[in-house]
Amino acid sequence: MNNTIVINTDVKKATINKNIYGHFAEHLGRCIYEGLWVGEDSSIPNTNGIRNDVLEALRNVQIPVLRWPGGCFADEYHWKDGIGPRENRKHMVNTHWGGVVENNHFGTHEFMMLCDMLGAEPYICGNVGSGTVQEMSEWVEYMTFDGESPMANWRKENGRNEPWKLKYFGVGNENWGCGGSMRAEYYADLYRRYQTYVRNYGDNKIYKIAGGASADDYNWTEVLMREAGRMMDGLSLHYYTVPGDWAGKGSATDFTADEWNTTMEKALHIEELIVKHSTIMDKYDPDKRVGLIIDEWGTWFDVEPGTNPGFLYQQNTIRDALVAGVSLNIFNNHSDRVQMTNIAQTVNVLQAMVLTEGEKMILTPTYHVFDMYKVHQDAALLAVEPNIQKDEATKLPEIHVSASKNNSGKTNITLCNMSRDQERKVTIDLRGGSVSDMTGTILTSANMNDRNTFDNPDAVKPAPFNDMRVENNSISVTLPPMAVVLLTAAE
Ligand code: AHR
C-alpha cells in the first residue's frame, strides 16, 4: 500500500509559536566563551565581543528566543558577579562543567546585547538551587525596573539607562537533580515562594516558567500542576535523545545501523512524553493556558575523543538532522500545548547549530534543518491526515510530516525519511486550495555518518529538490534515504 497524506490547506489549527524554534546557550564548555563571546580584543572578527561569523549564521536561522545562563550552571550562577567593569568581575569555578575558571566576562549586559543583535527574546533562568529569593527578585528589578531603585540605579551606573524588556523567566532548572535534588512537593512550594517576588515592573509582563520534569517523570508534572499550576505560565520538560545509556551514550560519528534505528526510535519517543505530560496538564488546565516548554532537547552522545569530558563537545551528522526534523515536526503538531522549545545547545555543545575551532566556523546538518524549517515560525498548523506505513524491520514510520500555512498564503510541508537505506514514496493530496509554483529543498547525504568538518565544511548541505510530480492538487514525491525535505506551494 502507498503512503498517502491529505493536507487540508483551509483547516487551520493552532498557531505554531515561533518560540518552538528557540535555542539554549549555557556557560558550558566552549558554548559561551569561544563560541559566542571572544571579547572585544580578540583577533577573531567581532562586534562588541560577539564573534561576527556565528552572529551572522544565527541571525539567518531567525532564533526567536534564547535561554541562558543554564542549565545546571543557572543554579550555581550569581548574577551580581557578572556585572560592572569586566576587569573587576569575580572569577569562580564552574564546578558542574569541567571545573574551569569562569571569569564572568559574559554577564547580563552582554547577554541582553547578544539577544538584541540576534533579534531574539531573552529567556533567563534564575537560581533556586543555591540562590536566595532576594537575589532572584533583585535580578528582575535590575533588568526591568524603570525609575529610582537600588537595582535600577546600579544598572544605570553600569551604562544601561533604559530597562530591558524581559518576557521569559525560569524559576530554577532541573530542581530534581543538579538544581537542588528536591522532591516535587518541596520544589512546588519553593516555586510558589520564589515566583511571588518575580515582579512585573511597569508594562513588563513576565511569563514565568516552572522547572519541569525529566523525560517520563509524570509525578513531577502532576505535583507541579496541582500545587502551583495557577501561578505559572509555562512548565518545562527536558528530554535528550541518547542512543545508549548515560554510562555509554554512543559515538556521535562512529555508529552502527542498529544505533541509527535506536536513535530514531528514541527521538520519536518525545511524542509520547508530550502526549502524557499534556494529559496531566489538561486535567488542571483544560484551557491550555500553561505552555509546555521543552527547554532542553536534542541528541546527547559521548564527547568527541580527546576533548574535555565536561565540555560536551560532539560532532553532528545527517543522523542529527533527522532527529531535528522529526522533533520539530512533532513540536509543530502539538503546538496547542507546546509553546516553546530550546535545542541544547547553540554552539559547540551537544546538538549544536555551529561548531568553531579558533577563527573557523562550520554549520552543522542540524543548522540546515533549522534554516529549512524557519518557514513554520508563527504560521498556522494545518490539519494533516497521514496514512503512513511502518517499515517492517525497524518499525519506524516510513514518512514523518508536519505542514503549515503562513500569512502570505504559502503552504510549507516538511517531510522526513528516517530510513538509512530505503527510499520512500508518498502521495500528498492538497485539499482546500490549488497548488501552484511547487518548490522543494532537500538535506540528505550518502552515508549515515556524513558531517561537515573544518576541512570539508559543505559535505552536508541543502540542495534543490525536484523528485516530485504535480498533477492537479496531488503531489507524488520520492524521498531518498536519510532525507529531510521542505516543499512549498503558493496559493
Ligand atoms: O544541556 C546540558 C545539561 O543537561 C544542562 O545543564 C542540564 O540542565 C541538563 O541536565
Could you characterize what this model shows?
- The chain has 491 residues and is of the alpha/beta class.
- The protein folds into two domains: 115 residues, Immunoglobulin-like, CATH 2.60.40; 362 residues, Alpha-Beta Barrel (TIM Barrel).
- It is built from nine helices and 24 strands.
- It has a ten-stranded mixed beta sheet with strand order 21-20-24-18-17-16-1-19-23-22, with helices on one face. An eight-stranded parallel barrel has the order 2-5-8-9-10-11-12-13, surrounded by five helices.
- A hairpin with a 2-residue loop joins strand 22 and strand 23.
- Helix 3 crosses helix 4, helix 6 runs parallel beside helix 7 and helix 8 runs parallel beside helix 9.
- It starts with a strand and ends with a strand.
- It binds alpha-L-arabinofuranose (AHR).
In short:
The protein has helices spanning 52-60, 108-118, 133-144, 150-157, 184-196, 218-228, 257-284, 318-333, 365-373, and strands at residues 3-15, 22-24, 46-47, 50-51, 65-68, 92-94, 100-102, 121-126, 168-171, 207-214, 234-241, 291-299, 338-344, 354-357, 360-363, 380-387, 400-405, 411-417, 424-431, 436-444, 463-464, 468-471, 474-479, 483-490. The chain is of the alpha/beta class. A ten-stranded mixed β-sheet has the order 21-20-24-18-17-16-1-19-23-22, covered by helices on one side.
